[in-house]
Write a structure and sequence with these properties.
395 residues; mainly alpha; Na+/H+ antiporter like fold; 18 helices
Length: 395
């Protein structure tokens, strides 16, 4: 028999939190043009257990599963929108991504060492700093309805350095496990084996689903087909301690190149995607604690500044040779600020290893909170300054 008294309050509080965040987000977007994600972050932080105590201290397995599904839906779309032919024709884009991510890693690592941070911790935080969260990028670009060079490049580069960050993070974790346990098998499983198997599962599912979609000879239910497949893929990889991030990205990439077409109305998975996005970005902010914010504000702000300057410099240097003006290169670098959703979900997926950097290192909590609020604003500003937002769009 289901223990109703213990389950109803938890789901009720989350329902109220999502409703409040959605309503205030709509008014904020309509009145002051504040990106909805920024409002969701503010509401999530205020309603979190460490602030107002409205939401529970620990998150149930059901909530965590829904969060991972929400992230998976967005990552699928990010992977779906990668055009590999574009990368093959313009190798400088790939070089730009590697250069920008490497420069960010080195700059953040030096900064953290200057603050006397332990080497292993500095390496992990530097790897996380390489990434730009595709989840935030995709949702804000959908909201703005933008299209153009800056829009497409921000989306592509954020996805590429997300992949680079996952690989780098997993390799560092593997070395840490090897150093402490001496188990080559355990270290290999956490790093290369887990990533390769995750990508293989995503690629295989992409091939199978593409064949099934073709066999039905209809595009009406493609969105439902892919949504159910993503739920299955996220659940499977999460239960096997693999990487849902790499699996869903690969699934989207393979689906695109198997020539499965999703029209504009199917992008973002419609109402399902909108609903889960509210839950995702509210959840991200609830994981942060006010005492950590106060404790790490100095180093956290320094981390944000160094990371942002590194991304702007790394992208701007190669702007001209990669086919855009240096002005647009600056805007692309400026829009690469978001990190929050990627960092929190990656760390949630590595809790079984005993890694909890958000709780242990306050500077990361500061960076996550600030960039979840101002990151979407920076993307919105960049696409507007590049004149890639239509003059009239539905709100």
């Amino acid at each position: 028999m289901i223990p109703l008294p213990s389950t109803i309050p938890v789901f009720l509080t989350w329902s109220i939190a999502i409703l409040l965040a959605f309503i205030i987000g709509e008014y904020g977007f309509k009145w002051i043009k504040l990106p909805r994600i920024s409002t969701y972050a503010i509401m999530g932080f205020i309603l979190g257990h460490s602030q107002s105590g409205f939401l529970p201290k620990t998150h149930s397995d059901t909530v965590l599963l829904l969060i991972n599904i929400a992230f998976g839906l967005i990552l699928f779309e990010a992977g779906y929108r990668i055009n590999m032919r574009w990368l093959r024709k313009n190798l400088w884009i790939g070089i730009t991504s590697i250069a920008e991510a490497t420069l960010t890693f080195i700059a953040v690592y030096i900064l953290l060492l200057c603050f006397n941070m332990q080497t292993s911790t500095a390496l992990l935080l530097s790897a996380l700093s390489m990434a730009t969260s595709p989840a935030t990028v995709v949702r804000v670009l959908h909201e703005q309805g933008s299209s153009g060079q800056v829009t497409e490049r921000v989306l592509l580069l954020s996805t590429l350095n997300c992949i680079l960050a996952v690989f780098c993070f997993k390799v560092i974790v593997a070395f840490m496990i090897l150093k402490t346990s001496g188990s080559i098998w355990q270290a290999s499983y956490v790093s290369l084996f887990a990533l390769v198997l995750s990508m293989a599962l995503g690629g295989l599912l992409g091939i199978v689903i593409a064949a099934l979609v073709r066999s039905t000879k209809t595009t009406t239910h493609n969105m439902v087909f892919f949504a159910i497949s993503i739920i299955f893929l996220v659940t499977l990889t999460h239960s096997l301690n693999l990487s849902p991030i790499m699996a869903t990205l690969t699934f989207g990439l393979v689906s695109r190149h198997r020539r499965i077409i999703l029209n504009s109305s199917q992008r973002g998975f419609g109402t399902l995607g909108d609903l889960l996005s509210v839950l995702l970005f509210v959840f991200i902010a609830t994981t942060l604690k006010w005492p950590h914010i106060i404790e790490g504000v100095g180093l956290g702000i320094a981390l944000i500044v160094v990371r942002q300057l590194s991304k702007i410099l790394g992208i701007s240097i190669f702007a001209h040779v990669s086919g855009i003006s240096w002005q647009k290169g600056l805007l692309v670098g400026f829009a690469m600020a978001p990190i929050s959703a990627f960092v929190i979900l990656l760390l949630e997926q590595t809790h079984y290893l005993g890694i909890n950097l958000v709780d242990k290192f306050s500077c990361l909590a500061v960076a996550v909170l600030i960039l979840e609020i101002i990151g979407p604003i920076m993307i919105q500003t960049a696409v507007k300054l590049s004149h890639e937002v239509p003059d009239t769009k539905e709100y």
